[in-house]
Amino acid sequence: MKVEKEPVNWIDAFELLKDLIQNSQRKKKIIFIDELSWMDTQKGGLYNRLTCQIYLKPFKLYECEEYLKSRNINLNRYDILELYMAIGGIPFYWTYVEKGLSVAQNIDKMFFADDAPLRDEFKYLYASLFKNPQNYIDVVTVLAKKKVGFTRDEISKETGISNSGNLTKILDELISCDFIRKYSVFGKKVRDALYQLTDFYTLFYFQFLRKRPAEENFWSLQTDTSVRNTWCGLAFERVCLNHIAEIKTKLGISGVLTEVHSWSCKEDKSKGLKGAQIDLVIVRNDRIINLCEMKYSISEYNFTQKDDESLRNKIVSLKTVSKTKYSIHPVLVTTYGLSEGKYSGIIQRVVNSEDLFVNI
After folding, report:
1. At the topology level of CATH, where does 244-357 sit?
2. Model pTM?
3. CATH entry 3.40.50.300 includes domain 121-211
4. How many CA atoms lie within 13 Å of 135's alpha carbon, on the beta-carbon side?
5. How many CA atoms, within 13 angstroms, populate the side-chain half-sphere of residue 335?
6. Do residues 350 and 337 lie in contact, with contact meaning Cβ atoms separated by under 8 Å?
7. Angle at Cα 67 formed by Cα 64 and Cα 71, nearest 5°?
8. What is the pLDDT of residue 38?
9. DSSP H helical ranges for 160-285
10. Can you give the pLDDT at residue 51?
């Protein structure tokens, strides 16, 4: 196609491209534009000219399993779960999983080796997605301090970012990119909603990479350490929160209208409350509340007397504070299921990690 005059801006250039496509006699046309995102700036011709946005969700567990199978990488579901706890469902990160290596070897190679591709990912990740990334980093750094998260007012106070439209923009963009989630607390007002860090890589970074351990086999040496076990419990909870639809399917309530919350109360001796924290409360329209306990284990979970006392305290506290008239059904979400024992009878339903791999 002969061009009579050179385009003076991107809009002119794309108009020429459109004419070329329309006048082409070829049936199949492939247009490749490299680094298009860098043209999307306030000084460029593409700014604010989007016709639509496509939300690409992270992979679920079953999709990660299918991806590994497509590459002839045979890992069992427990191994896939552990990898997911470290890197989440980001397809790009899964491309670094190598055939023939154990999970520990793969994690060492991805994060802790001298040339580990994800070792310095944190400092590039936020800079590549956000203009003025420091404010976004400040927010996730604060959220990494507390498992349950912070309110908007608390985030503003901790970061020094004014509680204004700018903070709204930062929080909304972090949510849309799946770094954090906003959730309501059962029985509290919307303004008391909490923001919680949910990005698996960022969680892993703050737990293990921020201090830059020098040992190349760091992860292989962490088997059954207290630090790793604590991380496993937290990361498994995040996996469960990322697979609530699968949990509802297992419980047979996928067609029931529900609200998903977290809940907590502080100790109040005057009311006989010891204090309690529940990370997943499913409030059902059929007047039942599923109180979900999420427990990571390398074998069938043994529900102990301590677990029983803790769960009964949570049920009593929830009923007392919320004054709910709904029936409360405790659910255990764990890796390998529940070991039947003296204290297991309180659990109404069990969801195991196999149930989280369901394609729904």
Report:
1. Trna Endonuclease; Chain: A, domain 1 (3.40.1350)
2. 0.85
3. no
4. 17
5. 21
6. yes
7. 140
8. 57
9. 165-176, 200-204, 226-241, 244-251
10. 66
